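About this split. The held-out portion is used to measure sequence recovery: a designer receives only the structure tokens and must propose an amino acid at every position. Recovery is the fraction of positions where the proposal matches the reference. Here is one held-out target exactly as it appears in the evaluation file.
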């Protein structure tokens, strides 16, 4: 069984002391690919070095909405240049809107639209962060579609209602579920997870945040993506292997990932 964790932040300080052990655990449970998201372009060299260390790691580059105040006139060119500098860059992100923690809504929209344009120009998918901003996100994406054309991507760590989920499915997006879907009171997220078609479903940890049950409250890590897969299998009344196969195929399609051959997999484990 092969799993893909489509959203990690293993560059964070909480992982510095045990990266090798962390890697051993994700390999033991069958995680064969990871997509490392980016909060701001300054993280790029560290993320790139992690990909040098762990060959199953691909990554993104972008500016998170909570850092929108760091946007400069040169950053669009910087993100574009970084995205083109390494074939392991598979997305622009994470980008989006967060109206829960910040009030600079117009600035966030401007920065988000600028990065959508980068992704479209480079033919890369986007990794979208959307918190308390689904209606505004839908409106902005629809306007971008009308004026500039479609952009493909994923609504990451999705926490929206089934109705909101359908909005983004209708726009062609994949929907990725994190440990939130395993939480007892996450009824709307669970309902959304049942609605998403099998060919648009992704899984992630968003580690080190939001560890799934039964690890809730602890530091999250890529190996725990298996718990997300197991819970989705329960919700959707299918086998774990079915969820693993579907979400892995979807991740490979969206991000252009190539799964390791049997020989490569053995070499990585060793």
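Reference sequence for scoring:
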């Amino acid at each position: 069984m092969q799993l893909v964790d489509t959203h990690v932040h293993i560059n964070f300080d909480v992982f510095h002391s045990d990266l090798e052990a962390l890697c051993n655990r994700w390999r033991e449970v069958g995680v064969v690919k990871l997509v490392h998201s980016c909060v701001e372009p300054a993280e790029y060299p560290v993320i790139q070095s992690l990909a040098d260390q762990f060959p199953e790691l691909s990554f993104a580059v972008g500016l998170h909405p909570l850092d929108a105040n760091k946007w400069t006139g040169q950053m669009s060119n910087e993100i574009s240049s970084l995205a083109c500098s390494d074939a392991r860059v598979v997305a622009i992100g994470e980008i989006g809107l967060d109206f829960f923690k910040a009030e600079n809504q117009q600035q966030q929209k401007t920065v988000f639209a600028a990065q959508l344009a980068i992704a479209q120009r480079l033919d890369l998918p986007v990794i979208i962060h959307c918190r308390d901003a689904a209606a505004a996100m839908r409106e902005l994406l629809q306007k971008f579609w009308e004026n500039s054309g479609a952009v493909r991507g994923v609504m990451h760590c999705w926490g929206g209602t089934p109705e909101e989920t359908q909005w983004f499915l209708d726009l062609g997006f994949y929907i990725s579920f994190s440990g939130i879907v395993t939480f007892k009171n996450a009824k709307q997220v669970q309902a959304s997870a049942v609605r998403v078609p099998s060919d648009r479903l992704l899984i992630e940890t968003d580690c080190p945040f939001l560890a799934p049950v039964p690890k809730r409250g602890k530091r999250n890590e890529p190996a725990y993506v298996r718990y997300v897969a197991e819970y989705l299998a329960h919700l959707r009344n299918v086998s774990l292997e079915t969820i693993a196969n579907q979400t892995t195929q979807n991740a490979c399609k969206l991000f252009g990932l190539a799964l390791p051959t049997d020989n490569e997999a053995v070499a990585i484990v060793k």
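Annotator remark: The radius of gyration is 17 Å.
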